[in-house]
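Same chain as my last thread, 87 residues:
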Amino acid sequence: VPKGLPGWSCAEKEHLGEELSDVLLYLVRLADICGVDLGEAALRKVKKNGLKYPVERCKGSSKKYTQLANVVNEEEFRVDTAIEEYL
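reply #2:
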């Protein structure tokens, strides 16, 4: 999706905003019911992604973390264990 939605009318953008707001409200309600702190969950996920996909090895690539340079194979790089120890 191009940034700023060029070619979309104001009415289309407004409708999209309403739909995205619905999704957000449902998400917040679901998180509340489940006892999930969305702020904390988001921070943990950002940290986890930062460890899996360090900028210096990943910028411009869509490869999975197990396919990146310096990773011989999944057995030698247990990212989930490293992440849990870090967090």
